[in-house]
Design a protein that fits this description.
By secondary structure, this protein is mostly helical. 52% of the residues lie in helices and 0% in strands. It contains three helices and no strands. α1 (33-51) runs antiparallel to α2 and α1 runs parallel beside α3 (77-97). The longest helix is centred in the C-terminal third of the chain and has 21 residues, at 77-97. The chain is elongated and about 80 Å long. It comes from Drosophila kikkawai. It is found in: Membrane. InterPro entries: ASTER (IPR005351).
């Protein structure tokens, strides 16, 4: 039997060091898109509920899905879930109040 020699060079190994967070929110490199989509989803779902605009309710559902898909595991799941449920309820309520097909906002 032959003994194989490890070809890796130990002096060339560099351990990964995570960058230190700067400030309270993690510095400028933090992705804020899930938070923006969450806020937009809440705004559009409230517009869809109050003004009975179906396109606002659908756009709120779209924003909530983006917010849920791009959120981090460390984010608060309750806030994302409440925004998602609010947008789903906006879509359901807008179709319960008026079951006709949606007309685009630019059509008269």
């Amino acid at each position: 039997m032959s003994i194989t020699v490890d070809p890796r060079r130990k002096e060339k190994i560099n351990r990964y060091k995570a960058p230190k967070n700067q400030g309270q929110n993690g510095g400028a490199n933090e992705d804020m898109m899930p938070d923006y989509m969450n806020i937009l989803g809440m705004i559009f779902s409230m517009c869809g509920l109050m003004m009975k605009l179906k396109w606002c309710a659908w756009f709120a559902l779209y924003c909530s899905c983006i917010s849920f898909a791009s959120s981090r595991a460390s984010d608060d799941a309750k806030q994302v879930l409440s925004s998602f449920m609010l947008s789903v309820s906006a879509v359901v309520m807008s179709y319960l109040q008026n079951p006709a097909a949606m007309t685009p906002p630019w059509a008269s």
